[in-house]
Design a protein that fits this description.
Distance between the termini: 21 Å
Oligomer: single chain
Order of helices and strands: EHHHEHEHEEEEHH
CATH topology: Aconitase, domain 4
Shape: globular
CATH superfamily: Aconitase, domain 4
Helix content: 25-40%
Strand order of the largest sheet: 4-3-2-1-5-6-7
Number of strands: 7
CATH architecture: Alpha-Beta Barrel
Strand content: 15-25%
């Protein structure tokens, strides 16, 4: 997975929990599409309406902490976010994101260098480039890359088992 893409940056801070990503009161809505307008609403009510497909979230440490609700990575993906780059992730959120086909990248330094609205270039499993500076990133294991490439765990297992 040495895919390359560029995207506009939305900057979020530390400890963005799943209640901020999609508040509890909107989990009763029928679909993730119905939930999209309320993503990040406790923090920035206007944000969901401003995000465009291909945009990138750059966040601080402990992104996705809180409850293990799968709707959190699902709503981020539904907004069209290409990937989330954070200093660190809550482990259950990391796994839920991979299982739902949302690319997460850990990088400790980028958050402090970018400003909202900047454009960054991402070369998956290699580096992030911002203002001419390269930020190396670790490679994801092949099994996680396979899941991401398939669009999520269920799709990957269907493909593996010849169902699709």
């Amino acid at each position: 997975m040495n895919e390359k893409f560029s995207g506009k940056v939305w900057v979020l801070g530390d400890d963005i929990d799943t209640d901020i990503i999609i508040p509890t009161e909107y989990l009763a809505l029928k679909t993730v599409e119905d939930m999209k307008p309320y993503a990040f609403s406790p923090l920035r009510p206007e944000l969901a309406g401003q995000i465009k497909p291909g945009d990138i979230i750059v966040a601080g440490k402990n992104f996705g902490c809180g409850s293990s609700r799968e709707q959190a990575p699902e709503v981020i993906k539904a907004l069209g976010i290409r990937c989330v780059i954070a200093k660190s992730y809550a482990r259950i959120f990391f796994r839920n994101s991979i299982n739902n086909g949302l690319l997460l990248i850990e990088n400790a330094d980028l958050h402090d260098a970018v400003k909202e609205g900047d454009t960054i270039d991402v070369e998956v499993n290699a580096q992030i480039t911002h203002n001419g500076k390269a930020y190396p990133i670790a490679s994801l294991p092949d099994n996680l890359v396979d899941i991401l490439n398939a669009g999520g765990l269920v799709k990957a297992m269907r493909k593996l088992n010849g169902l699709d």
